Protein: Argininosuccinate lyase
Amino acid sequence: MSKNKDQNKLWGGRFTEATDAFVQRFTASVDFDRRLFQQDIDGSVAHAKMLAKAGILTADEVSQILDGLESIRQDISDEKFEWSVALEDVHMNIEAALTSRIGDVGKKLHTGRSRNDQVATDIRLYVRGEIDQIAELITKLQSALLGVAEKEASTIMPGFTHLQTAQPVSFGHHMMAWFEMLNRDYDRLLDCRKRVNLSPLGSAALAGTTYPIDRVFTAELLGFDAPTRNSLDSVSDRDFAIELASFASILMMHLSRFSEELVLWTSAQFNFIDLPDRFCTGSSIMPQKKNPDVPELVRGKTGRVHGHLVSLLTLMKSQPLAYNKDNQEDKEPLFDLIDTVKDCLFAYSEMMPAVNCNKDEMYAAAKQGYATATDLADYLVKKGMPFRDAHEVVGRSVAFGIEQKKDLAELTLTELQNFSDLIAEDVFEVLTLEGSVAARDHIGGTAPTQVLAAVATAKADISKR
Ligand code: ARG
Structure:
C-alpha cells in the first residue's frame, strides 16, 4: 500500500509518494478557510438536491448525504469537529467526514463538481452575507450621524479649508458631510453585491461537466440571482472580491478622515468635542491623558485594508485562465478586511451618539480667524461693488483687524467705513456668526433650516432600505 493512502488524501490515486510535510503545511488552507463551513455545506446541500432532481443520485442517497452534512454542520458549530491539515482545506475536510459518517454514498457528492466551482461558490455566498451585515452597519452609523446632525443643526463651528478658519458652519452640516460620504459607500457596496450574487456552481473544474446538471436550480436554492455565464471565468474570477476591497478601501479612507477630525477636535488646542470615557484610554505615565484610541486605531487600520486591496489586485494580476492555486491566497486579505470594516463601523456607530459638543469652544473658535470676511465681501457686492474690489476692501479691513487684535464684528462702524462708504449700520447683521450661517440658505448650504431639511430627506431615504 502506498503512503498516500495512509494520509487519507482524496486525490491520492495517482501518487506513489506521500506529500512532503512542509508542502502539506504550505499548501493547506484549512486553518483559515474553515470559516467558510456554513457556505460550503449550503453549497453541497444545493448540489446534492440538484443531483437528485437530475436523476444522478437516488432520493435515498441524497437523503443520507443531507443528514450527514447536517450532522457535520452541527458538530462544527459545537466545536466538536476535528479539522485535519492533511485534508488540506474546508472542502475536503467536510467531504472526508461525510464519507466516514455515511459510508461510500458520501463519495458520490462530488459528482459533477470540483473544488474550483465549490470554493468560488463558498466565497460568493460568504461575501454576500457579509455585504448585508456591512450594509446594516453603515445604516446604523448613518442614523447615528443624523441624530447628531439634527441635535446640532444650529451649533456653530469654524469651517476649514487648508485647516485654516474659512467660514462658519453648523456642526450638523459637518455631520451631514460625513453622512454623504457613507451614502456613496453604501451605494458602492450594494452595486458590488449585484456582481457577487451570481452562482458559479456547475462550472466544475473549468469547462463544465458532462452530467445533465441544472445550474438554474442550484442558483435558486442558494438565493443567487442567476448562474454565471462562463465556466472558465467563473472558477478563476475574483474581481468581486477586489470590488469589495475597493469599496472597503474607500470607506476606510472616509473613516480615517472622520478619525483625524475627531482626534484634532478632542485635543486641548481645539477642545470642540469630548468622547465618552468608555471609548478612550489613559496613559501609564501621564495621569492627565485621555487618549482618543478608537479613532486613532480606525485611522491606523485603514492601512491594512488598503494593503489588502493591493494584495488582491496583485494576486490576480497576470493569472492565466482558469483556476490557479494562487487564488487560495484571496481568503486571508478578504476575511481581514471584512472583519476590520465591521469592527470600525461598529465602533463608530456606538461612539458617535455619545459625542459631546463643547458649543462654547466651537463658537469662540469660529469667532477667531475672520470667518465672516466673505460675508462682508458679499455685503459690499449686494450694495453694488464688483466682487474683486470687495475682496480687496475686506482684505484691507482684515489686515487692520489683525493689527488692532479685533475681529471684524468688533471694529466700529467708523473704522469699517474707512474702507468703504457703502458700509452702513446693517453690516453687523452679516458679521455675526449666526447671520453668516443662516444666510447660506439653499440646497446643500449650511443654514440650520437647510441642515434640518437635509436630515429629514436622509431619514426618509434610509428608512426605505
Ligand atoms: N483551497 C482551495 C482554494 O481555496 C480550493 C480549490 C482548490 N482546487 C484545486 N484544484 N487545488 O482555492
Strands lie at 156-161, 164-170, 198-199, 226-227, 273-274, 356-357. The chain has a mean pLDDT of 95. The two ends are 61 Å apart (CA to CA). The longest strand covers residues 164-170.
